[in-house]
Design goal:
Rossmann fold; ABC-type multidrug transport system, ATPase component; 26 strands; nucleotide-binding; 21 helices; 4 domains; Alpha-Beta Plaits; six-stranded mixed sheet; ATP binding; AAA+_ATPase; 25% strand
């Protein structure tokens, strides 16, 4: 098939479930070797579109042609991978691959060649004999991807396959996708993660079953009618606390008044992203005037590059009135019946960890950790799989006891497993400890009674949870019938019913779309302003930016701690951005010479970690020697994702 001839054609596609239009007349084309992304909120129609392309569900109307045929006629040329892709737990990595190869009658010689290549590209070669049931979630996803590709399909369809995967595995998967696309495989990916969508050649923004925008990510970013600015306190010590909160409130009030060019705000852990109309003559001056009017300290204001997340939130807000930011939302929460802590006390910490270790036999999961968690702090635990985050979370919650060292709660020096501490803790597990046969209302009522919340307060808080998370209409639905995102909302509601002093949240926004995530984090920030401490684990570096403090772990040790800005500022080496006419070819060439972990495929560009700025000239000379002429190699500030890779994978830092 010719490169300029569409390999996938979709015209007037409609998919109805009863009277609900999941897909409502969409048109698009995908070309050979292209990585095409589908983005949108929950229920936008992404999964229905992917299923229609895979030929696994009949469409209501419209036309789909894949390689000139209906999808059902070319299934042997399609690879289709969902989160529920079936692996055989009792078979090894290699045995799973061999099973899928035999199902498709792949010749042994071809199987061996692809097996070797794919296991090497996805760093699975050392685990070839390990049972699939003993792999981490990220490794299972990589193995599932290998199984879907072992027959080398011409088209690969991916539906939310990177949920729950850390930054290391995500880099490996996207590098792998770039390689197979460079070899001619066409890829269509539906994703909630908009930082991933940035890596596609083109994306389609779907909302309410229709395509709102379509094109290369850079074109969508350029189409945004707002300018983007970072507002950072001049004094880093003010990046959390009452002044930071007052600055946020002043900007929110200005947005609500409609008398200012400031139209939206995204508060992060140590700074704010402010969106200003492009028609504004001086955006910086407008922001400083708002701060001056409220007698607040001046802030450092600098232009920022918009992201696809900004584009999507802004577009949905303009086109359908959907609010990505909800000013004043948290003000409806009932006040605590008693102060969360002794405000007269000079002790600001709520948890103190002193030389804590946890050993299983000869394996040391946590090694001599010491730190404190302050009231109102949002602490993010970061690290690759196996870093010790889950063990540490269980130790802090009192689910495990340390092998050595001590964990104390408040100035009373209570231990995590004591009954009085358990009443002060809220815990939201990634495994959702809810009752599937009970309704939303019954689950919330059960947890409220279990925590001893008086009936009047319990009912008021349940009403607030149902209203805030738009669950009122489905309050009597059983949990087993809810989407993953709605289950997450109920789980969070159950964790906060007793208004705990500290919240432990394990991947809390898994399965939530961009608008719900922003609303969720606004609620968390509201709790933090009231003095609630939080410990969050997340694989999303975008979400880690919401934390006020980050703790990086590797092999059970504390490697680095600080605010998101401080973590990025402390990175040694240089991050460069490489622009070229063919980023996929550039990536392939770079990985022949340099350690693969250094390169991050970003769709229209490559980001690369260098140990020293002087290595830029060596990089340029190498690219010239392999006849890859970059348009530009530019040093850029470290992103949190690049910092994560630098900390987790640099051999000199292990």
């Amino acid at each position: 098939m010719k490169q300029n001839q569409a390999i996938i054609q979709v015209k007037g596609l409609r998919q109805y479930y009863d009277k609900f239009a999941a897909v409502n007349g969409i048109d698009f084309e995908v070309y050979p070797g292209e990585i095409f992304g589908l983005i949108g909120t929950n229920g936008a129609g992404k999964t229905s579109t992917i299923k229609a392309l895979a030929g696994v569900q009949k469409v209501t109307s419209g036309m789909i042609r894949v390689m000139g045929q209906p999808p059902a006629m070319v299934r042997s040329s399609l690879g289709y991978l969902t989160q529920q892709f079936s692996l055989y737990s009792d078979l090894s990595v290699e045995e799973n691959l061999r099973y899928y190869a035999k199902m498709r009658r792949l010749p042994e010689q071809i199987f061996q060649s692809r097996r070797k290549q794919y296991l090497q590209w996805l760093a699975l070669k050392p685990f070839a004999d390990r049972l699939a049931g003993h792999l981490s979630g990220g490794m299972k996803q990589k193995l599932a991807l290998c199984c879907a590709l072992i027959t080398q399909p011409q088209i690969l369809l991916l539906d939310e396959v990177s949920t729950g995967i850390d930054a290391v595995f995500r880099r490996e998967i996207w590098s792998f996708l770039a390689k197979i696309a460079q070899q001619g495989t066409t890829i269509v990916v539906a994703t909630h993660y908009l930082d991933e969508a940035e890596r596609c050649d083109r994306v389609a923004l779907i909302h309410n079953g229709t395509i709102q925008q379509i094109g290369p990510p850079e074109d969508l970013r350029a189409s945004m009618e707002l300018s983007c600015f970072e507002v950072v306190p001049e004094d880093p010590m003010l990046a959390s606390g009452p002044i930071f909160a007052a600055t946020e409130q002043a900007l929110q009030n200005a947005i609500a008044s409609n008398y200012t060019p400031v139209v939206d705000l995204k508060p992060l852990g140590d700074r704010m992203i402010v969106f200003v109309s492009k028609q504004a003559i001086s955006a910086e001056e407008a922001i400083q005037q708002i701060l001056h009017l409220h007698q607040l300290p001046s802030a450092r204001i600098q232009a920022a590059n918009p992201t696809l997340e900004h584009v999507m939130a802004n577009h949905l807000q303009r086109s359908s009135g959907v609010k990505a930011s909800l000013p004043g939302l948290f003000s409806t929460v009932s006040q605590r019946s008693s102060p969360p802590y002794n405000s007269a006390s000079n002790v600001n910490w709520i948890v103190k960890v002193d030389q804590v270790s946890k050993v299983y036999g000869t394996f040391q999961a946590v090694r001599s950790l010491s730190f404190t968690i302050s009231r109102g702090e949002i602490l993010g635990l970061l690290g690759a799989n196996g870093a010790g985050k889950t063990t540490l979370m269980k130790l802090l919650c009192g689910l495990l006891r340390p092998s050595s060292g001590k964990i104390c709660y408040t100035s009373e020096h209570l231990l995590p497993h004591s009954p009085s501490v358990k009443q002060r803790i809220g815990y939201m597990s990634q495994k959702l400890t809810l009752y599937p046969d009970l309704t939303i209302l019954e689950n919330l009522s059960f947890f409220g009674r279990a925590y001893g919340v008086p009936r009047q307060q319990r009912n008021a808080r349940i009403d607030w949870i149902l209203q805030t998370f738009d669950l009122t209409q489905s309050a009597n639905q059983r949990l087993r019938n809810l989407s993953g995102g709605n289950k997450q909302r109920v789980a969070f509601g159950a964790a906060i019913l007793h208004e705990p002093d500290i919240l432990f949240l394990d991947e809390p926004t898994s399965g939530m779309d961009i608008l719900v995530r922003r609303q969720f984090w606004q609620i968390l920030q509201g709790f933090a302003r009231q003095g609630t401490a939080m410990v969050v684990t997340t694989h999303s570096m975008e979400e880690a930016e919401y934390c006020t403090n980050l703790l990086f772990m590797r092999l059970g040790e504390l490697i680095l701690q600080g605010s998101p800005a401080a973590i990025k500022a402390q990175q040694t080496g240089t991050l460069v951005e490489i622009l070229s006419a063919s980023p996929k070819n550039t990536l392939y060439s770079l990985e022949q010479k340099f350690e693969p972990w250094r390169m991050v495929f970003m769709g229209d560009r490559i980001q690369m970690i260098l140990d020293q700025p002087s290595h830029m000239s060596q990089l340029r000379n190498y690219l010239g020697s392999v006849e890859v002429q970059p348009h530009q190699i530019t040093p850029i500030p470290f992103s949190l994702e690049a910092a994560f890779l630098n900390i987790a994978q640099h051999p000199k830092k292990r």
